[in-house]
Amino acid sequence: SMVKMMTTYSTLKKVREGSVKLEDMITASPWASKIGGSQVYLKQGEQFSLNQLLEAVLVQSANDAATAIAEHLGGSVDGFVEVMNRDAQALGMSQSEFHTPHGLPPGKDQKPDLVSARDFGLLARALLREFPEVTNYTSLQTKEFRGGAFQMSNHNHLLRHFPGADGMKTG
After folding, report:
1. What is the pTM (predicted TM-score) of this model?
2. Residue 42 and residue 38: Cα distance in Å, rounded?
3. What is the DSSP letter of 113?
4. Whole-number Cα distances in Å, 86 to 13, 37, 79, 146
5. What's the pLDDT tens digit per position in 18-44?
6. What gap in Å lies between CA 10 and CA 36, rounded to an integer?
7. Count of H helices and E strands in the chain?
8. Cα separation, 67 vs 134, whole angstroms
9. End-to-end CA distance of the chain
10. Rounded CA gap, 136 and 10, in Å?
11. Which of the residues are catalytic?
């Protein structure tokens, strides 16, 4: 789940740079629709805005949404992972190595995502400083998806138990 913080940072950086807009529509690929784990059950060919998919990443921790974003913004998952690693290095995250936009355990012949607690702290601070609007997503306990046909639920239980908690990710 916490790898999605890096996916979010790299995504919001591209929005800030103007190479993509939150209103841009993204089409789910066959790969994104089959990624598994926590998801919003994207179907191949379905279209959602970048904003809707970012909500899915940050509320539902949706691996399929993270994959669709990565494919769209990076041209491929590998292309976006390169962006994530460059952004991590620029933030001083010297003990990090990303191989996915979602953080699922590696399959056969895949390398794991590696991130230290220190680097996660650097990333969380950068997200809050550079993109304070991220808490508009991470503070949501629930959010409708697909026009209400699917109810997303935040995995961060601190939101329900501590008034004023505004999230980030759990993991």
Report:
1. 0.95
2. 11
3. P
4. 12, 26, 11, 33
5. 999 999 999 999 999 999 999 999 999
6. 22
7. 8, 4
8. 19
9. 5
10. 17
11. 1, 4, 61
